Amino acid sequence: MLTHLVEANYHGDLQAAVQKALLQVQGTFGIAVMHVDHPSAIVVARRGSPIILGISERASLAASDASALAQHTDKVVFLEDNEVAILEPGKFTITTLDNRSVNRGTTDLDFNIESMDRGSFPHYMLKEIFEQPESVENALRGRVNHSEAVAKLGGLEAVQDRLVHARHLIIVSCGTSYYAGLFGRYVMETLTDLTVETELASEFRYRKLNIREGTVVLAISQSGETADTLAALREAKRKGALVLGLVNVVGSTIARETHAGIYSHAGIEVGVASTKSFTSQLTILTLMALLIGRGRDLSYEEGHDIIRALEKVPEQIGEILKQAGKIRELAEKYCHTDHFLFVGRKFQYPIALEGALKLKEIAYIHSEGYAAGEMKHGPIALIDPKFPTLALALEDGSYERVVSNMQEIRAREGRIIAITTEGNTKLGNLVDDIIYIPRTHEAVAPLLTVVPLQLFAYYCGVLLGRDVDKPRNLAKSVTVE
Ligand code: M6R
Q1: How far is the CA of 3 from the centre of ligand 1 (A)?
Q2: Bridge partner residues of 262 (DSSP)
Q3: Do 29 and 159 share a domain, yes or no?
């Protein structure tokens, strides 16, 4: 339809034809238009969906995600809604749809181009899983004040007072970022007395919002372009909330539209499955909780415990990655199952959900993530020898209750893989297989337990011949509703 509309308005000037055509349409678009009469020009336009221009001496480029441009240039220009640009070799001009000219300078991309190279890894997903010791380190770098046992988050400084004294925090996000948000709720509630809600952005944007004085909305997004998350934050902003972002892609739309925010510094994530961006999100949410908690009633000692635990994470993830061979063997044993259940409680509940999502999207195995305590309210009816469970059973405050859930599964002849704390010898015959993770603080443990689940999904996907970096039907940034 758009092509016909551009054609109907075309009288020799392609940019004018696109402007006129788009003034007649409703809805969202991010388009690139080429015409046989103008072989060296591309006209791009956006409303709602992202368009980024890449500028170099040799060429002008356009993409919907900055990472696609990083191999060609580090100078980009972000097109805003209702703008049209004409790209020609070495130059570009931007106007609004109603033909007012726009002057916009270029922005430097801070991508490290080497991170686009897979190196010796067969897939980006595996490379990105193995990058986590470094990406967590980067998320922490310069953000901890040891002497006061508090976090230093430069991007939040301007709003720190409002954040620390907020009454109500609502976290909005989608997919893996939503599970990070769920973790955020547990960690904020543990380290602060703030009321925290987590909401799927696709639901939040259509709810009747109760934004009161002191409400802060935090949007979490790797890409910074997810349409539902963006719409949710715009709605919250319109209703008067302080809107913050936790985003990976620098300069992305969500990063630009929030009042303040923090970058996760995970580096470019190419694989469609979020892996390293998730652990960076968990790291920063923990730092945010520390910042708010120390501004309220969290003790110095408790603050220090969290910092000590966070700082050990890069090395501990390294230890877990050494078990990749063993996890591959588990994948060989279990990848031909049709169904999988992931269970965990409290801090491990969001990780059960994330483990199930990874296995679905990468291996196309039907998997369910459940709060372990919910088993007896329905899902236990599914358990039989062909429906294995992965149980997150760390020696923490929930251990005894998770073990009792595992006993119920065992009594129905369900097979169990347990992820438990190093040195735990008590699980014995209750489980078929065990993966150990190093001992850490309960609130920090999700940063470790998710790693074997990522590897498990990856190896299942590879063994089943899936396209793990580009799973079917999925896109890295979901820029449509
Ligand atoms: O870029 P975002 O973090 O906003 O993306 C949200 C989801 O689309 C994303 O996490 C998706 O669920 C991933 N494919 C999960 O691996």
Answers
A1: 31
A2: 246
A3: no
* pLDDT tens profile 165-202: 999 999 999 999 999 999 999 999 999 999 999 999 99
Q: Which of 173, 270, 274 to mutate to test the pocket of ligand 1 (most atoms within 8 A of CB)?
A: 274
198 Cβ below 6 A of ligand 1: no
Q: How far is the centre of ligand 1, averaged over its atoms, from the C-alpha of 221 (Å)? A: 7
Q: Quick one: the chain helix, strand, coil %, rounded to 5?
A: 45, 20, 35
Q: Please tell me the distance between residue 59's alpha carbon and the centre of ligand 1 in angstroms.
A: 31
Are residue 312 and residue 172 in the same domain, yes or no?
Answer: yes
Minimum mean pLDDT range among 339-343, 391-395, 425-429: 425-429
Instruction: Return d(Cα 221, Cα 188) in angstroms, integer.
Output: 18
**CA angle centred on 48, ends 157 and 7, rounded to 5°:** 150
Q: DSSP of 207-240, one letter per residue?
A: S-----TTEEEEEEESSS--HHHHHHHHHHHHTT
Query: Residues 332, 309: one domain?
Result: no
The Cα–Cα gap between 153 and 426 comes to 41
Whether residue 223 has its Cβ less than 6 Å from ligand 1: yes
Instruction: Give nearest CA residue, ligand 1 atom 7.
Output: 175
Q: What is the biggest distance separating any 2 CA atoms in the chain, rounded to whole angstroms?
A: 79
Ligand 1 contacts CB of residue 222 (under 6 A): yes
With the most atoms of ligand 1 within 8 angstroms of its CB, the residue from 176, 178, 354 to mutate is 176
pLDDT tens readout for residues 223-274: 999 999 999 999 999 999 999 999 998 888 999 999 999 999 998 898 999 9
Do 311 and 327 fall into the same domain?
Answer: no
When pLDDT is averaged across residues 306-330 and rounded to a whole number, the result is 98
Q: Residue 10: how many CB atoms within 10 A of its CB?
A: 17
Q: Confirm whether pTM is higher than 0.85.
A: yes
CA separation for the pair 474, 235 (Å, rounded): 26
Inter-residue contact 452 to 323 (CB < 8 Å): yes
Residues 172 and 306 reside in one and the same domain: yes
The residue contributing the CA closest to ligand 1 atom 9 is 175
**How many domains does the chain contain in total?**
3
Instruction: Please report whether residue 475 resides in a domain.
Output: no
249 and 332 housed in the same domain: no
Instruction: Provide the residue range defining the domain that includes 137.
Output: 114-320
* Residues 306, 216 within the same domain: yes
Q: What is the CA radius of gyration of the chain?
A: 24
How far apart, in whole angstroms, are the C-alpha atoms of residue 157 and residue 126?
A: 35
How far is residue 414's CA from residue 368's CA, in Å, rounded to a whole number?
15
Q: What is the DSSP letter of 48?
A: B
Domain with residue 14: its CATH number is 3.60.20.10
- Does the Cβ of 248 fall within 6 Å of ligand 1? no
CATH of the domain at 386: 3.40.50.10490
